[in-house]
Design a protein that fits this description.
Keywords: Membrane, TPR repeat, Transmembrane, Transmembrane helix
Radius of gyration: 33 Å
GO molecular function: adenylate cyclase activity
Helix content: 40-55%
Organism: Leptospira kanakyensis
Structural class: alpha+beta
InterPro entries: 7TMR_DISM_rcpt_extracell_dom1 (IPR011623), A/G_cyclase (IPR001054), Adenylyl/Guanylyl_Cyclase_3/4 (IPR050697), Galactose-bd-like_sf (IPR008979), Nucleotide_cyclase (IPR029787), TPR_rpt (IPR019734)
Pfam family, one: Guanylate_cyc
CATH superfamily of the largest domain: Nucleotide cyclase, GGDEF domain
Oligomer: single chain
Amino acid sequence: MKKLFLILILFHLSCLSEERNVKAEIVKGFSDLSNHSFTNQPFVVLNGEWKFFWNTAPNQIKETDSDLFLNLPGHWNGYKMPYGSIGGFGHASFRTKLKLADNLSETMALTVHEQDTAYAIYVNGKLLGGSGFPGSNPNEYKPEVKSTIVVLPQTTDLTIDIYVANYEHRKGGIWTDIVLSTYTKGESRITKRKINETMLSSVLAFVGLFFLVMYFYNRDGKHTIGIFLFSMAVFLRTISTGERILIEFVDVPYWILLRLEYISWFWSAPLLYHYFYTIFPEDFSKRMGTFFYVLSSILTLGLLLPPVYFTETASIYPIAFVANGVFVFVYLHRAYKKNRMESKLLSFGMFLVLVGATNDVLHAESIIHTMYIAPATVVVFVFLQVITFGRIVRQNITKTLEFAHEQKQLSTSFSRFVPTEFLFHLGKADIRHVDLGDQVQKRMTILFADIRSFTEFSETLTPKENFDFLNSYLQRVGPIIRHNNGFIDKFIGDAVMALFPYDVNDAVKAAVEMQEAIRIYNGHRSNCSYIPIEVGIGIHTGNLTLGILGEHKRMEGTVISDAVNLASRIEGITKLFSSRIVISADTFIEASDGLGYHYRLLDRVAIKGKTESVFVVEVLDGYEPEKAARFVATKDDYTLALDAFRREDFEEAIDGFSKLLDTNPDDSVSRLFLDRCHEAKTKPKMELGS
């Protein structure tokens, strides 16, 4: 059991450990980091004297020699202005200038951790990110608490402005470190913090529910319900503070999140006292426990008030919190002197909790700048309680470790990520059973969709705008694929590769619906003055092999087949004909009986990597309804003109395609064949089908 406890402590210490911050020591709004090595010291906190511009947005800043300065991290409450001290409400800009090395090869980033307010990050005058919406008055202001990481421009001279607004909380300003690092390091640190807090909250939730189950099995063991309530209070605080992992899963409004943070704090102390009282009722005062219950109840009622009022308790409640811990220590010492059960071990656990809680309070008040550690100390404390409850609970500790081991196995399996649809077609019931060499041959229909001219289009967008655009686009086409019994095999940049294992018509139907969704999406983009997009879709049906490719530490599901390559090439053909949807002859033959859509033949087209040309067909329903109707109405004339072209009767073909273009000037396919006819007349020996 002692070895188990030591392992748990080391486990939590490893969760909390991270690379140390180095202070930049900003002086008068400037810091020279041109000689700093981000390889040896990857994280630099921009602490020190930032220029302070009260009631000023970044675009309104006019720098002078007499600019004001405020040490960050810190609150602006009580800051001395010529007309007196300022309060917590208002808006302000903080500015510092940095000099970086000329030879930086990696992309740099700025990380701003959660603030109890709204803020925006500007670099060299450009808005790069933030949390909520800061504004000059409450009507323009929307608070939000979350960490933000922004990519910095590739330049040696940076002017960083943090625009902060507060009209809700008792204190305004920046109370956590602003960290400069490489983007990969910064993103890794935020991810690690979120993972750590997720793991801690999962352990708290699991252990709390475990003791709740124990209570239902043994109603006489009131201490089990006590540790359950205390674990749930700390669990609630863990998910509502720090990286606030709750908002990763649920869109929680600011006013709810802030109250969750405070209510979990108000009740952690009396619930902890109650827990010890249930273990040592002879040594702990029931009257003192009642006092803390009444105090927490009053403070909870105060949460009905606006945040500016109930957040003031943060300067008062720590006194009661520390007093609660002192009384617990006094009564635990009394129990220890009477040789009560495991009182020594419980005293040690209580010491850890008090140290963690004190650190968190001082960190939240911006007195010290560390990180939240109370949840981790509570986890250790809870496991200490398990030791005190005898053989039954000790046996369940083994189950807890088995659960942790199972979670580790599951995590390892997910790190090798295989789409769930692959599992079904591979005949695997669980992702943990997937291994290298697993493969199965199937006949499926492959759909490739690609945004045209995306490279040029993406160069006009910032990295964030690119991701937002692609996510917005994929959220529209992904559900259509699933709705039509297909699944997305992979995203290849802006391209989508989807598989339809059951019916060829599912793929064609999905393609038509995707084009309709894109037209609706373009309507929204037009309303926002954004450039519309065009998507070409190629479809082919053939045999393919689904399997697991990679090596034992990194695997992925993939599809290997000539049919896949051909589907990709057919998508490329849509650019040649300026078509929306093009399918192969194989797909057309299998789908023709139940296709249910209008089509027209195109031509044999040479495919790179294929010795023989491939016949392709255009699905007309991919166009706008009015345009598709015109093409359908002239389909017979088109067929006659195409037949003349294939018979090399170019005069007849020219006449036919010219008439088609008179009726449909936007018929890109007829225009292409007309150009080929004229070219064939001048160079009769050229390959007509190339």
